[in-house]
């Protein structure tokens, strides 16, 4: 989050997407925070560049103040587009309920509030693109302007921007786009709506042109930063979301992170897809992830959507072709998302037994959650309709709909309450808890600043977002094998070097000074300890007996 904001703000100010850190020439490129990499001293983003370029361009136009508000703004636009899409596929009532449920959906607003993650922006750009695509098959002419071709072009633009924001989502988006295109040929109207064969291929060309045009900035900066159009800054395929893995105090970062010692080389998008191979799929882990982060955590969405899907399958011969396509796309997307992301073993929370909304699975599964909403809305409407009773002929008022409407209202209100409660007051990582923790951590870090020289480098494993870019940082926990020599080289140059993190137990502190750090002629000195939070500030000094 901090890195994306930093680069977007830099881009808006015309400072580009790199800066030079001379200390990395002697520190083996170690002086970087998370989500940033250094190649021979040139520091650059480790991220899909979409959010940086889009928000940076908008900030260049409106000012940097707008950056933190853009994701919530796009989230609101996404809801309206979702309503329009669902209205075309199902009906007005399902569309209204689905949009209302999306308005309260926990992971959607949780990550919209944490505004510098890619996921919500990707979803919203995709929803806008789909909305324009659908309208491109509906609105043929307006004031003698072929608006269908304009909308198709805009659809390609927004699809391209979505891919630029999270190219890894092509793992499920590409098959879905192919299936949808094939369905256009297989199904009769009203699904087709692309006109004759000539218009159909013309619209496909216009869509592809818009998509490629939107991707050109990504191709350019990938070439400039990483040496190839389809190369990205991640260290290796398994590191696509490496920043989500955190090491717990006194545990070797090599064992938990799994990427700390990997060579720093750009990753080709084609190579990243190799992760989606049978040898990489862990069915058991994927099943656990799906159950914990969907069926259990969001049971109030899962079960209504499940039985709504069952109803569609049961009535398969009666439902419209767009609804059939929607269900097929939903099932295929969910399977790919569940197997691909679910197979990863991700632990953002230091407590491995804790399943909370802040874990990355909830944002990876976001497309699946959102596509579930119309199915859940369908079930709510069907259940509510059971409460209606036959209308009396002599009655002018349709009283038979009142019980159904009341039942539907009660179910929706329950859904909204459960979501707001989880998003705002959720245990450990609800927005209110997160805000209080951030304020507390920021105050603690601020209290340490008086002990740290402006030119100092701070080693930290989890708190770099509070330190950088005010201070230069190195990601580490002093127990890993990656950077001890770099620490020694920096200390020899007279650069103040600190460690900020969890307090070391006496035995570990003694071990570091007698063995680990002693091997590179360094020793650890206690500067300040906060026993309440178990956070300490230490200074690394060159030993006198070198």
UniProtKB/TrEMBL annotation:
InterPro entries tied to this protein: LipidA_mod_glycosyltrf_83 (IPR050297)
Domain of life the protein comes from: Bacteria
Residues that span the membrane, as ranges: 42-59, 65-85, 94-111, 117-134, 146-164, 170-188, 200-221, 291-313, 325-344, 364-381, 402-425
GO molecular function, one term: pentosyltransferase activity
Bilayer topology annotation: Multi-pass membrane protein
GO process annotations (BP): lipopolysaccharide biosynthetic process
Organism phylogeny: Bacteria, Candidatus Falkowiibacteriota
Cellular component, GO annotation: plasma membrane
Location(s), subcellular: Cell membrane
Source organism of this protein record: Candidatus Falkowbacteria bacterium CG10_big_fil_rev_8_21_14_0_10_43_10
Protein's recorded name: Uncharacterized protein
Glycoprotein keyword on record: no
Swiss-Prot/TrEMBL keywords: Cell membrane, Glycosyltransferase, Membrane, Transferase, Transmembrane, Transmembrane helix
